[in-house]
């Protein structure tokens, strides 16, 4: 295992410490229990909290800040955060308008966020994200997995909360957005969990895993390496079959790197996706390309489509000021 | 070779087309000859042009926009752009105040930019970046290589040009900045040039290349994999020995991923660098962490220190609006 690491059991703490030191203008790191919170709160707004296993950076900590999350609770690598992290985060960032938890659909995350929600004294609600169309149930999941589309939910609901919407409105909007987001990924290589010290799965020199999960969970099929156009075709066919966007839908396209794939290839994959969608008469209105929901050092990428209505477009464009996304302010 | 690619000889064109389509609000792609230019020019300012072999994305195209470059000329992968690209870019973006070429010190780049400068009808000057302290001469270089520090030069000089400084002032400021930037990198794996189809160099399962170049050029030594703290120590010792920042220097620290290394590890490496610098009494005033000057899919990272004076700090903080860097506007 070759990683920038000192000790396996210090990986998360040291990575988070570096993150917090690098972005001390925007975020603060709380220890015991661990969570990342905004440096500057917006008084009186609904507090948005997300979290999940680490190894997917910049998700979720990189999206803490103005216009997105109020706090993020990182678990150990590929391990759910604990209810005490979520409760402490809620207590720290609730300013009286209640707390909205944004949860990716994994059994452990869901159970722990549910426990936190029950014990949380503030009024609260949960938005469950399950955008991965690859498989119906999976290794750690009943129902579909939550993957890269989660950052779109966080951005859109974050904007709505920032504008003063109440808890009920934020929850309803979040549920609305979730229904309009669909994703699917492909792996060229497996990531390596530091504590395991070896790749999560083995894959041949000329093989790819189509529909892979962000923890290396199996997808739909193991295939021979194929041209980018063919990969985009398989992913987008599955996504469009599921999402069924209207012919005149305003699409947000997210090309997400899984950690080990450089930007030059992600742009090439976007070029393939762009051609595929245009050939079928779809209109791309917004684009995001980058490694935003990773699986440690996995090589590969996912595609996400989000069908934007006017409100969602406005929320996507609104100002955001986080370590990872910054625009319009 | 597993990459998002359709045909080896279409890699650059398709990646650039995807880039330009994704960022059509900020940039335009010119074909025959190929260059990327700002969508919206600032009239009457000195035009900044950079370029170099592709494979280092987002350098340079990702830094075209308000407050940074006016145009970027991408060559084929690891191959210098040609003088006709540079001349066409200069003609397109010169608005009467002259052209400043920002060139990484590689023999091919230097020769072609010199030819373009000679033939260019507009008044022009060149800033040569040679921030890599690892080796004095190298495979493609007489003198030190230009690496990740280049984006700092582009940001700072870009801000000065945007504020209305003339060509002489921009050139002098660029030369001043170059003297205050030093970098060194380490590779865990080799990138794979699409046309070659196999890694540029071989490296053992437990080996790293300390001082590697951004084309996979040899560095100072081949070593056993070491803890992040030890790697940071070796890189920073070399950088500080060369840069000799004053004890009260205001440092900008850039942790740059080489393409195949995820953000979580870059933050951990920053944590190591942060501790190292603080232990020696240095003050970190600005931080940038990300994969900004890559070597295709190489796993590894580089560290860059820049010793900021008051003018440079102001120029770093000023507004920038490019596909890759955005703040303050």
TrEMBL record, chains A, B:
An MF annotation (GO) of this entry: phosphoenolpyruvate-glycerone phosphotransferase activity
Any GO CC annotation of this UniProt entry: cytosol
Matches recorded under Pfam families: Dak1 (PF02733)
Keyword terms of this UniProt record: Kinase, Transferase
SUPFAM superfamilies: DAK1/DegV-like (SSF82549)
Source superkingdom: Bacteria
Stretches assigned to the DhaK domain: 7-327
A Gene Ontology BP annotation from the UniProt entry: glycerol catabolic process
UniProt-listed InterPro entries: DhaK_1, DhaK_dom, Dihydroxyacetone_Kinase
EC number: 2.7.1.121
Alphabetical list of NCBIfam families matching this protein: dhaK1
Name of the protein this chain belongs to: PEP-dependent dihydroxyacetone kinase, dihydroxyacetone-binding subunit DhaK
Provenance organism: Paraburkholderia solisilvae
């Amino acid at each position: 295992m070759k990683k920038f690491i000192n000790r396996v059991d210090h990986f998360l703490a040291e990575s988070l410490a570096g993150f917090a030191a690098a972005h001390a203008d925007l975020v603060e790191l709380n220890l015991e229990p661990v969570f990342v919170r905004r440096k500057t709160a917006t008084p009186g707004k609904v507090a948005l909290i997300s979290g999940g296993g680490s190894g997917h950076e910049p998700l979720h900590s990189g999206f803490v800040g103005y216009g997105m999350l109020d706090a993020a609770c990182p678990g150990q690598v590929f391990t759910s955060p604990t209810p005490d992290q979520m409760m402490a985060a809620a207590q720290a960032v609730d300013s009286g308008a209640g707390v909205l938890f944004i949860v990716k659909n994994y059994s452990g995350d869901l159970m722990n966020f549910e426990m936190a929600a029950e014990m949380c004294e503030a009024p609260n609600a949960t938005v469950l994200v399950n955008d991965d169309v690859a498989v119906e149930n999976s290794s750690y999941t009943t129902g579909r997995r939550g993957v890269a589309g989660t950052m779109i939910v966080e951005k859109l609901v974050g904007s709505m909360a920032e504008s003063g919407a109440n808890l009920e409105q934020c929850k309803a909007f979040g549920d609305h957005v979730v229904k309009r987001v669909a994703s699917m990924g492909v792996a060229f290589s497996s990531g390596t969990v530091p504590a395991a010290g070896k790749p999560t799965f083995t894959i041949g020199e000329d093989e790819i895993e189509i529909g892979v999960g962000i923890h290396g969970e199996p997808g739909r099929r193991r295939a021979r390496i194929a041209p980018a156009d063919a990969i985009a075709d398989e992913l987008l066919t599955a996504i469009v079959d599921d999402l069924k966007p209207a012919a005149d839908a305003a699409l947000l396209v997210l090309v997400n790197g899984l950690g080990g794939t450089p930007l030059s290839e992600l742009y090439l994959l976007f070029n393939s996706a762009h051609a595929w969608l245009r050939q079928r008469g779809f209109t791309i209105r917004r684009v995001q390309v980058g490694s935003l929901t990773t699986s440690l050092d996995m090589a590969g990428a996912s595609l996400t489509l989000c069908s934007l209505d006017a409100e969602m477009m406005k929320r996507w464009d609104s100002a955001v000021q986080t370590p990872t996304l910054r625009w319009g302010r």
